[in-house]
Design brief:
- The chain contains 18 helices and 15 strands.
- By secondary structure, the protein is α/β, with parallel strands linked by helices.
- A nine-stranded mixed β-sheet has the order 2-3-1-4-5-6-7-8-9, with helices on both faces. The chain has a six-stranded mixed β-sheet with strand order 10-11-15-12-13-14.
- It is globular.
């Protein structure tokens, strides 16, 4: 290896600058579960790349001008130094202002920054020694550094792809440890909760209903991946009697993998719709994957299923005889009737066999009653009395960002920003319709619906036309289908289109009036910004 005078300084500067440059690329990847391909889809990365190209042209021009000067070694050093300073400043001052979900410096993120920076710096070092070995003119080494930002996104994505292999192996180690801990507790009641929507709500409702009779451990928030479940298992204690695992699925094999890991004794299947159709490929694939949760372990396991899914063949056959339907359908073993909903909550009758109880909840929307029914069915099967269940229902709190009512100064806000599927959108608009006064919906539309995305967003537009007095659309290109649906629905209210949520927020003072009810329907991650 051939090093020239000052090379170690340049190598150190490369390491510092590449660490700073990693921020937008890492943020884009983090938003899509550390996918290297996300780097090339990110508007933020493209914007930074264009700035880099301008910086490269400026300093390459300066380098070329000094090539013919006798003291070019000194000026070459200065031009390279100021290039590094300019690049570092461009990325250091980028602080994520306006990001809905800023970069989180988790352990994995820190590892990604350190290891990708080291890998790229090592490549630059090799390139530097090759240039030095090929030519005694050390002035020729500087274009190597000027060219780095031009190829940085590709280098980062490649390094991240290699790193992901080791991350998956590391995650597999955690999964296996969690599986061993769960297998070592044959006395533990393990409940899997999955579905296209309603998973987190049903999980939380069930945990509240069981809390008085059992020591319960449930996965936190929306932790529904193998690693998220593994982290929850670390909190398992000898006193824990019930473990509730929310299971998410974006592609074929996800539920099967989680089932092998947790080996649940009971399960709840909340709903099946077009959510993640883009990654599953077909509705049939979604049904096959979601219904894998019914393959619980043990002969005594109970599977609670939404009554709306009763016609799915595997549920209709009920070969093991352990499926309990819950909902408003007459075929449901756990049934809700006499439902009355308003803007302050709902009242209904919950019936199990010959027992029934009057229930009231502050939760908004009739769909929440269906979620409550599924949680109540599982709690009842585990021995909780109907009286205790009714008491727990009255104390239930809404899940954050899921039809969460926020009463502001003269304006009511229904925060449903975690909703991103057609069924949830329909339910949210049903809730909005219950409120008096002017009704406003703010939405960027729905994504990851594959070939149904345009048709579902057009349908959303027609539904908005039926309920709303004003609609605020976020994303001029993406919401074109919603706008078409509004026109098809004969919408006669006010419609506004903004390029971003930040732009819309600036205009809220003139768009919103006292007494308005504002539905925040779905808030897409930053990687979907136009």
């Amino acid at each position: 290896m051939v090093f020239a005078r000052g090379d170690w300084f340049y190598i150190l500067m490369t390491l510092v600058v590449t660490a700073a440059m990693s921020r937008p690329s890492l943020h884009a990847a983090q938003l899509e579960n550390y996918s290297p391909a996300a780097v090339f889809r990110s508007k933020k990365v493209r914007s930074a790349y264009l700035t880099d190209l301008v910086c490269i042209l400026v300093f390459a021009g300066i380098w070329t001008g000094f090539y013919f000067v006798s003291s070019r070694a000194f000026w070459g050093f200065l031009s390279c130094l100021f290039f590094f300073i300019a690049e570092f400043a461009l990325y250091f001052i980028e602080d994520g202002t306006g990001m809905k979900k800023p970069l989180r410096y988790t352990r994995r993120a820190v590892r990604a920054i350190v290891l990708t920076s080291l890998a790229i710096t090592a490549l630059v070092t090799v390139g530097l020694t090759l240039i030095n070995g090929a030519s005694p003119d050390h002035y020729l080494r500087y274009p190597l550094f000027f060219a780095l930002p031009a190829v940085y996104p590709a280098l980062f994505a490649g390094a991240l792809a290699v790193l992901n292999v080791f991350e998956r192996l590391n995650n597999l180690r955690y999964e296996r440890r969690a599986a061993r801990r769960l297998a070592a507790r044959p006395d533990l009641i393990k409940i899997a909760v999955t579905g296209s929507c309603g998973k987190t709500s049903v999980k939380n409702y069930l945990a509240a209903m069981l809390a008085a009779d059992f020591d319960v451990l449930a996965t936190e928030g929306s932790f529904n991946t193998p690693l998220g479940i593994s982290k929850t298992v670390d909190r398992l204690t000898p006193a824990t009697e019930v473990f509730i695992a929310e299971m998410g699925a974006r592609k074929k094999g996800d539920i099967a993998r989680l089932m092998r890991m947790v080996r649940p004794t009971h399960a709840i299947l909340t709903a099946i719709n077009s959510q993640h159709l883009a990654t599953f490929g077909s509705r049939e694939a979604i049904i096959r994957e979601k219904t894998r949760v019914l393959g619980v372990y043990g002969d005594e396991g109970v599977c609670v299923v939404s009554g709306a899914l009763k016609d799915i063949p595997v549920i209709r056959r009920n070969e093991r005889g352990n499926i309990v339907l819950a909902g408003e359908d007459e075929e449901c073993a756990v049934r809700v009737t006499d439902v009355a909903v308003c803007e302050d909550g709902s009242v209904f009758r919950l019936s199990v066999g010959r027992e029934s109880a009057e229930c009231a909840t502050r939760l908004l929307g009739e769909h929440n009653i269906a979620d409550i029914a599924m949680a109540a069915a599982m709690a009842y099967c585990l021995g909780v009395s109907l009286e205790r269940i009714a008491g727990a229902i009255g104390a239930l709190e809404p899940v954050e960002h899921r039809l969460q009512l926020i009463r502001g100064e003269g304006i009511r806000i229904i925060d449903d920003t975690f909703n991103c599927n057609p069924d949830g959108a329909a339910c949210a608009l049903g809730v909005l319709a219950l409120f008096h006064g002017r009704k406003v919906a703010v939405t960027p539309g729905m994504v990851e619906l594959g070939e149904e995305e345009e048709s579902e967003n057009r349908l959303l537009g027609r539904r908005l036309a039926e309920v709303c007095d004003a609609v605020v659309l976020i994303g001029k290109k993406r919401t074109a289908a919603i706008a078409a649906g509004l026109r098809e629905g004969g919408f006669g209210g006010e419609a506004y289109v903004f390029g971003s949520l930040a732009e819309a927020k600036k205009n809220f003072p003139r768009l919103l009036h006292l007494g308005d009810t504002v539905l925040l329907l779905n808030d897409l991650p930053d990687n979907y910004d136009e």
